[in-house]
Design a protein that fits this description.
Layout (H helix, E strand, L loop, with lengths): L1 E2 L2 E4 L20 H12 L4 E3 H10 L5 H16 L4 E6 L2 E6 L4 E6 L14 E4 L1
Parallel strand pairs: 2-3, 3-6, 4-7
Antiparallel strand pairs: 1-2, 4-5, 5-6
Length: about 130
């Protein structure tokens, strides 16, 4: 599903295109699946339905420059071994699950006051 040009992740997906559903050791496509998964991870950030909803509610607009900055911040966090990162910038905070390349929620500058963030292991300042 796309929301204003953003790729959204739906947790109800049951299979990944090209996924080998055969029992281990019977299909020989495990290496192909790993390669496909790595390629898909490099495509760019996805936005969960929750994150897309919060962006609409909070008036956070994502342009090409912001998207590029977010992708670079996620890549920098990935290189340091981060799993769940808070990316803090002028537009707000984006909480990203690094292994899944998915923005899980967002918060505008106005919403950032007096907030507590849990279940993150890293922060990146943009």
């Amino acid at each position: 599903m796309d929301v204003k040009g953003m790729r959204c992740y739906e947790s109800s997906q049951t299979a990944i295109p090209g996924q080998n559903t055969a029992a281990p050791g019977t299909g020989g496509k495990q290496a192909e699946f790993g390669k496909l998964l790595q390629e898909k991870a490099k495509v760019g950030l996805n936005f969960s339905k929750h994150a897309a909803k919060r962006m609409n509610e909070r008036g956070i607009a994502v342009d090409n420059q912001l998207m590029s900055n977010l992708e670079q911040a996620v890549e920098d966090a990935r290189k340091k071994g981060a799993r769940d990162v808070a990316i803090i910038g002028a537009q707000g905070i984006f909480i990203v699950n690094v292994p899944n390349n998915t923005v899980v929620t967002t918060m505008s500058q106005n919403d950032m006051r007096e907030r507590v963030f849990t279940n993150i292991d890293s922060a990146v300042l943009m």
